[in-house]
Amino acid sequence: MLVITGEDASTRRRCEGSGMRAVRVPRLRFLPWSVLVVAWIGSIVVEQVLFGDSIGCELSPGTSVFGDAGWSWFPLGRTCTWLIDGVTVIDHPSLIELLIPATLLVWLVVLLRAPGTPRVSA
Hints:
The chain has helices at about 5-20, 30-50, 100-115, and strands at about 20, 70-75, 75-85, 85-90, 120. By secondary structure, the protein is α+β, with helices and mostly antiparallel strands. It has one domain (about 30-115).
């Protein structure tokens, strides 16, 4: 049997009559978002550490033509630049790289607009 005392008990009594139940700790709604943001930032750092040098800029698999590695802030990711027969070729990150930060941003807006003490129908 679970005994609830203090603030949790008063919250429970208020919600029982209305057919609603209180979410226990509203601040925890940011926890999954925070974990995913840290994981995303970690993946960017790992990509830069592992593939940030010219070894990660091979023109095509199996060739010995390596380019210069760089970084792009929009879209976020690694770039590679080659000089081939006097022509500069640049490989930019795909726009699909914006999907993760855009999703995290929309999720954050939804979390911030949520009421301070959310209630869920029982």
